[in-house]
Amino acid sequence: MIQTFLSKYKTIYASLFVITFWYLCHLFIQSTIIPNPLHTFVTFFRLLQGDMLLHVGASLLRISVSVFIAIVIGVSLGLFLGLHNKLDRIFGPVVYLLYPLPKIAFLPIFMILFGLGNTSKIILITVIILFQILVTIRDSVKGLSKELFYSIRSLGASKVQIYRHLILPAITPKLLTALRISVGTSISVLFFAENYATRYGIGYFIMDAWIRINYLEMYAGIIAISILGLVVFKAIDLIEHGICKWTLLEKGENNSYF
Fold first, then answer.
1. Into how many domains does the chain fold?
2. 113 burial class (0-12, 13-18, 19+ CB within 10 angstroms)?
3. Residue 105 lies in a domain
4. What is the pLDDT of residues 79-88, one digit of tens each?
5. Per-residue pLDDT tens for 107-164?
């Protein structure tokens, strides 16, 4: 029965585990730095009636725009390099040279070039997600055997049909995996970027509460950014469940997300 509950309600179990650990830390440490989780959640719901939704919405907008741009550019370039070996030999080394560089270091440059507003922050997040997607898609296409292309061409498939029935089904699961990894990183970077020249964003909200030594609001902001990340992850899971059902069957996963 316990195993059934854990497998069916993973998110609920994980949340209860974290909250229990948090409460135990509050009891043992006895410091305002770690407030009572019950009081924190009361503060969180109170702030939702105020301007916290504006902060969460601003962060979600930056993430959404960045993900969209990164997918369009990253998938296009990844397919292009993966399907053209000559061009990949030219541009591949450049991609692999830039890929491991910490993109957060370019934030001052982006701010100088594109201003202190949303544009520089969106470009920073886009660049972080872009390279992860580009490399993943490029390697996924490279991993497809030539026999698969020979087989589908022998059946008279057009270029559009090759993309639809071979390439896209092969790269989509790995694209979603790359998104999970890169979006998690990008939310962390966004928290840092939102501390500069902005009045809205959950990162700004958390640091502002910390400066005011309002730990209840600070932890409420941490809850908000955690929920933001969870919502993005669950959205990716639901997309995978809708368009990549064969991968779930191969993994033997159940269909419950909550």
1. 1
2. exposed
3. yes
4. 888 888 888 8
5. 888 888 888 788 888 998 898 888 888 988 998 888 888 888 878 888 788 888 888 8
CB 95 within 8 A of CB 133: no
Assess if residue 142 is contained within a domain: yes
pLDDT score for 1: 53
What tokens does 216 get? 């209840």
Domain enclosing residue 219, as ranges: 53-250
- Closest C-alpha to 44, from 206, 194, 212, 258: 206
Let me know if residue 26 belongs to a domain: no
Residue 174's contacts (CB-CB under 8 Å, 6 or more residues apart) are 136, 137, 140
Taking the C-alpha atoms of residue 37 and residue 91, their distance in angstroms, rounded to an integer, is 51
CA-CA-CA-CA torsion sign (210, 212, 215, 218): negative
Residue 2 lies in a domain: no
